[in-house]
Amino acid sequence: MTPTPIPAAAVATRPSVGDRGRPGRLRASIRRRWQLYLLVIPPLLYFALFKYLPMGNAVIAFKDYNIIAGIWASDWVGLEHFVRFFGNPMFQTVVSNTFLLSLYALIASFPIPIILALALNEVRGRFFKRTVQMVTYAPYFISTVIVVSMAILILSPRIGLASDLLGFFGVPQTDWLAKPDFFRHVYVWTEVWQTAGYSAVIYLAALASVDPGLYEAAKVDGANRLQKIWHVDLPSIMPTIVVVLILSVGSIMAVGFEKAFLLQNPLNLSQSEIIATYTYKLGILNADFSLATAVGLFNSVINLALLLGVNTISKRVTGNGLW
Amino acid sequence: MVSAVTVAEKKGEPTQAPAAAGRRTRPTKVRESLVDRLFLVGVYALLITFLLVVLLPLLYIVASSFSSPAAVSAGRVFLWPVEFTLRGYEVALSSPKIVRGFTNSLFYTAAGTLISVTLTVMLAYPLSRADFVGRKVLTGAVVFTMLFAGGMIPTYLVVQAMGMLDTRWALLIPNAVAVWPAILAITYFRTAIPDEVREAGELDGASDLRILWTLVLPLATPMIAVIALMYAIVQWNSYFDALIYLRDESLYPLQLVLRNILILNTDGGGDATSALERQQLANLLKYSLIVISTVPVMLIYPFVARYFTKGLLLGAVKG
Questions:
Q1: Cβ contact (<8 Å) for A224 and B36?
Q2: Which of A14, A40, A214 to mutate to test the interface with B (most CBs of B within 10 A)?
Q3: What is the tens place of the pLDDT at every residue in B140-189?
């Protein structure tokens, strides 16, 4: 951390914009700002090693990966692993499970934060508003392991909270988590429970920046609260809603591994096996690296295509996009 | 961690002010119409429902964790402890596995956060400087990793090739830098630190590193606190990397230990003698464990929450 005086020559020869080509500018910048370039090397090395190298390693999806020979010496097999995956009966199961789970989660968890934000925005009492916000925000910070454990405990037959409440209404005792049909409900509603408060924050911020003049105008026109929400609040936060929707639709096939894996048990696999958990089992547990990589790559490509596609459509239709 | 929180609290105040000033002042009506008042009743009812739906499960868990093993196993606990006892906590804290998981997690969280924050700042500061040629290409390369990834197995192979499997490094390095905090940091450096700061430093003949260390970082403490807390919570809560990279149980972080006890139902009877008592204690232990592992996060979350909000917005502007 010893200060290095800037050489006078470097200051004098500081390139003015536009008088040199790109390589010249880069060289001059490195000479002048070498400490910045030094600083950025370790994090760039990190991205090269742990993000870009894996992208290169993904070629084993097109090879017959042999641990001893290594990635580059293994034999090319073309699309064999993809063909194997598409021909496997599990293909349909995991793809449709992933899609349906995600679609359900999207439909359930998209509108609720908007409703929560609009309702909070109507509240005048600061204390009440803050309390609701802090409490609904809290579950976002609880770990997946804990949320799943809580769901299992609460839904467990005989001792859980749910069986008490449902028993009160005369619903018979059931082991919910052993029912394949129930997996998606547990997954989606714990998701809503965990993220609604967090997702509402971004809408609340958008609502806070609505032009007060619009409310004045609405008042002059004699609008009631509901009309005001419909004609002022909702249109004002529409760009935010669109961006959030693009992101959610774009990531519809990118269901995370963590929660589905924890909620899985041998009885509900017919609905709980998704692409991510299937990849884990093929790759880490069965050590079929090439096939697992092919499945993962298939999923990554679909995700990228979806995100780009949805973004393009949105830009064309609404004028709002991610970039 | 503690010092980061207090710093965040102190330094945060001035930056909070503009947000508060910008808050909309709703014109107050003298008398609301009947329709509006009914509507407002509906709004409050809805919000109270939200509040209860989030709160009840949490209260139920806490109440159960302080109840007797028999009461928990018979399903007699609702929102208040039945036959109050600390038995669940005694069993949890006397289990070497749990205590080791807890201390492991403390280590992973402290070390991981330090590494992550350092690397993120090293990445973000140069990329925030307009005179850093190549920053657009590099930022693009960083952001691209958010859109496309090699996948679980290719990453596993890299970790394996580097000899990190079954070592503590596997939880500290492969996910050290996240793109989102990096964008947050870049945006903060670019928008919240005036150029005059750097120019003043250069006039005094300070080098870029010295400017960053003595002038820019002190001004960036609120942002550093946010990303540190973000990384800390993610590290504390994650189990996936440990699941795929670690075999040695003595290295397990708390979340993976919890998963084995809570979800796979292995172990956890403590020093109970009879089979029935064992089963009952195992049940109670789960509730106590949930509380023990969540308390650290719930203690720092209120500090994080307000900065998370700001981070979310800052990220949204740029991202």
A1: yes
A2: A40
A3: 999 999 888 888 999 999 999 999 999 999 999 999 999 989 998 998 89
- The alpha-carbon gap from A117 to the nearest alpha carbon of chain B, in Å, equals 10
Nearest alpha-carbon partner for A259 in A77, A109, A39, A78 = A109
Query: Which candidate from B73, B151, B259 shows the least CB-CB separation from A262?
Result: B259
Residue B84 near chain A (CB below 8 Å): no
Contact A264, A222 (CB under 8 A): no
The full set of domains in chain B, from first to last, is 2-19+93-318 (1.10.3720.10)
Q: Is the ipTM of this complex over 0.90?
A: no
Contact A300 B149 (CB under 8 A): yes
Among the partner-chain residues A46, A145, A153, the one whose CB lies closest to the CB of B255 is: A145
What does the block give as tokens for B309? Answer: 């909000």
Structural domains present in chain A: 1-32 (no CATH), 43-78 (no CATH), 82-318 (1.10.3720.10)
DSSP-derived letter for residue B3 is H
The residue type found at B176 is A
Interval B176-227: pLDDT, tens: 999 989 998 998 899 888 888 889 999 998 899 999 999 999 999 888 988 9
Strand partners, A64: A75
Q: How many Å lie between the alpha carbon of A267 and the closest alpha carbon of chain B?
A: 14
Interchain pair B312, A201: CB under 8 A: yes
Q: Is A66 helix (H, G, I), strand (E, B) or coil?
A: strand
Name which of A58, A135, A297 is nearest B54 (Cβ-Cβ). Answer: A135
Question: How buried is A124 (Cβ within 10 angstroms: 0-12 exposed, 13-18 middle, 19+ buried)?
Answer: exposed
Chain A hits for B73, CB-CB cut-off 8 Å, are: 159
Backbone angles phi, psi at A73, to 5 degrees: -85, -10
